[in-house]
Design a protein that fits this description.
The protein is α+β, with helices and mostly antiparallel strands. It has 13 helices and 5 strands. The N and C termini lie far apart (43 Å).
């Protein structure tokens, strides 16, 4: 990942979303504006910096931008918390370290035991770029029963959430290809991957994954080019399972502080609901 190039593309994409009147500027009609959104000069004026300085920031030539400058730019662009964090990640990337042969990610025994203990509650562990590092029987049955449950133990064959969403027809149907559920999941997946890219720009696995998906999926390529960012947190989705039917489940993502970039995802249904009954039917098969 070219962090400086990503910073410029991210800032330009956010500028393009703002109309002059949204920022308190007079609107003279779209015919007089060659590009959508705010101009660089307008954004610089509203952020209280020179046009030249903002241009250098957008070109990745101001690696020592102060908190006050970044906060001002974020304010003018109306960035939410996730977008603000992404801006900081791109503007101040981690120091580069000598690249060495990447070791496969591993799940600590305590984490593995935890998700296995959930039994009737689907739970899994995601790696830095969305690889499924481990899952219990319930999560496997819910998300990818057509795959080998042992695939998560094989670094070269581990399922990847983004790859499943965009390249696996079973996953597309699971999230609802016809009712908009898959499209919403696709947008969230790419937004999460963009946030990850800001945190781990030198991850070779991420570079390879983005290249693969860009070449294989026009839908992914379009969403990736939008530079939308967002963190996967609490969410509620409807699943159309081929064996258990339709169910609505809540999912919680929890970061593992001792395992950089790893997260646990836990799925659950409203107690006493039809979705809980469907989930129990699935686990009984």
């Amino acid at each position: 990942m070219e962090t400086h190039a990503d910073l410029g593309a991210f800032l330009r994409s956010r500028r393009a979303l703002l109309r002059p009147e949204d920022a308190g500027l007079p609107a003279y009609g779209s015919s007089r504006r060659r590009v959508p959104g705010l101009r660089r000069e307008e954004l610089a004026q509203l952020a209280g910096v020179s046009a030249g300085y903002y241009t250098r920031l957008e070109q990745g030539q101001s690696p020592n931008a102060s908190d006050s400058v970044l906060d001002a730019v974020a304010r003018v662009l109306c960035l939410d918390d996730d977008e603000r964090a992404h801006l900081y990640s791109l503007a101040r990337p981690r120091p580069k370290t000598p690249r060495r042969e990447a070791e496969p990610e591993r799940v600590r025994p305590g984490v593995r035991n935890m998700i296995r203990s959930f039994a009737d509650v689907p739970a899994l562990v995601l790696g830095r770029i969305g690889d499924i590092l481990d899952w219990n029987r319930a999560a496997h049955a819910l998300l990818a029963g057509h795959l080998d449950i042992g695939s998560s133990d094989l670094p070269g064959d581990r399922p990847n959430i983004a790859r499943l969403v965009f390249l696996d027809p079973h996953t597309r149907e699971l999230y609802g290809a016809s009712d908009g559920g898959w499209a919403r999941k696709a947008r969230a997946t790419v937004a999460d991957l963009r946030l990850i890219a800001g945190r781990f720009p030198d991850d070779p696995g991420l570079t390879g994954l983005v290249g693969e998906l860009t070449a294989a999926s026009a839908e992914f390529a379009e969403l990736w080019a939008s530079h939308a960012v967002g963190d996967c947190g609490t969410d509620t989705r409807t699943y159309h399972h081929p064996k258990a039917g339709t169910m609505t489940l809540m999912v919680e993502f929890m970061a593992l502080p001792n395992d950089d970039g790893q997260r646990v995802a836990v799925y659950g249904a409203e107690p006493g609901s039809a979705s809980e009954a469907a989930l129990l039917r699935l686990l009984a098969t």
